[in-house]
Amino acid sequence: MTQKINTAIAGSLPKPAWLAEPEKLWAPWQLQGEALAQAKVDAMRLSVDDQLRAGITVIGDGEQTRQHFVTTFIDSLRGVDFVNRKTVRIRNRYDADVPVVIDRVSRGDSVFVEDAKRLRLLTKGPIKFTLPGPMTMIDTLYDDYYHSREKLAWAFAEILNEEAKELAAAGVDIIQFDEPAFNVFFDEVRDWGVKTLERAAQGLTCKSAVHICYGYGIEANIKWKQSLGDEWRQYEKVFPLLAQSTIDQVSLECQNSRVPMDLIELLRGKDVLVGAIDVATNTIETPEQVADVLRRALKFVEPKHLYGCTNCGMVPLSRAVANAKLQALVAGAEIVSKELG
After folding, report:
1. Of 1, 139, 143, 311, which is the most exposed, with the fewest CB atoms less than 10 Å away?
2. Residues 18-34: pLDDT tens digits?
3. Which top CATH class is 6-66+112-133+156-340?
4. What letters, b where the CB count within 10 A reaches 16 and e where it falls short, cover 245-282?
C-alpha cells in the first residue's frame, strides 16, 4: 500500500482578470455590488476546480473573496477606521497606508462563514480555511487606541476564536492562522505571540495550523531575504515554542530558500506543511525538484505528518504559472509517495 503525501496550498491563488487586476497585491475589484458578489463566488469555484484538476488533496478557497489576507478580515470589525489611514512600517521591510484602530475592536456577524459553507459544497475532500494571526494583524495596522501591541493581539485572538469556531461548525477541517510576523518579532513571539495564537485556536473541533514564511514574492521581501545571509535560521527561534503548543500543524518555506532542513526536527510530532513551490519566481518547478525537497524533509518528519505545500500565497503570479506550479507540486508528491510504497 502506498503512503500518500497529501498536498495543499498555503493560502491565496491568482484572481481572474475579470475579478481583480492580475498579479498585484491589494488589487482593486473590477466590479461592484451584486455583480462583484457573484464574481467572487464564481472565482472561488474556478479556484477549487484548478486545485482539484491538479490533484491537490486539501482544498482551499484561494482567498478569492479577499483583497488582502489581513485587511479584508479587519474590514469587517468594529473599532477600525479604513478612511483616515496612516503609514506604518510592515514587518520592518516596507511602508504601507493602513487602517487605524480608534476604539475597542469587536466582531459583529461572522466574516467568512458563508465562504466556508460554499467551499464545503465544492468538494467532498478535506478543506482548509485561512485567517490572519493576531501578531500579523497588529503589524498591519496603526494602533491609536490600545497603545499596546500585546493588548491588541489578545483582543484580536478572542475575535479570531469566535470566527474560527464558526468556520469549524461549517465543516472546515483545518483552520490556518497566517503569522509571517513570527519570523521577525522573536521576543514578542516568546512572550505572548504563541499564547495569543493558541487563544485564537482554543476549543476548535478541527485541526489548527500556523503558516510562517518569508513573505510574498514582492520586491521588499526579496531584498530582505537577500540580506539574511547563507542560512535562514529564524525558524530555530519559533519552532521549539510551537512544538510545545496546542497548534496541530506548521506550514513553512523551503523551496529555493536557505532554511536548513534539519530545523524541521524541532517540530517532531506535528504535521509539517513543507513549502516545495517557490512563489517568488515564474519558473515552474519540475516534479523532481519538488520531490527532492520532500525527500529531504522526510529525514526529519514522519510520512504521515508530511504535506507538500507552497512557500506562501500565489496571488501575485499569473493563473497559468500558478496552475503549472500546482501540477508540479502534485507530481512531485506522487513520486515520493510511490517511493515510500
Report:
1. 1
2. 999 999 988 999 999 99
3. alpha beta
4. bebbbbbbbbbbbebebebbebbeebbbbbbbbbbbee
Q: What is the pLDDT of residues 238-288, one digit of tens each?
A: 999 999 999 999 999 999 999 999 999 999 999 999 999 999 999 999 999
CA distance 60 to 12: 8
User: Using an 8 Å Cβ cutoff, are 64 and 15 in contact?
Assistant: yes
Exposed e or buried b per residue across 51-81, where buried means at least 16 C-beta atoms within 10 angstroms of its C-beta: beebebbbbbbbbbbbbbbbbbbbeebebbe
- Global pTM reads 0.96
Q: In what order do the strands lie in the sheet with 249-253?
A: 6-7, 306-310, 271-277, 249-253, 207-211, 174-178, 128-132
Rounded-to-integer distance, Cα 312 and Cα 217, Å: 8
Q: What pLDDT score was predicted for residue 109? A: 94
Residue 1, pLDDT above cutoff 80 = no
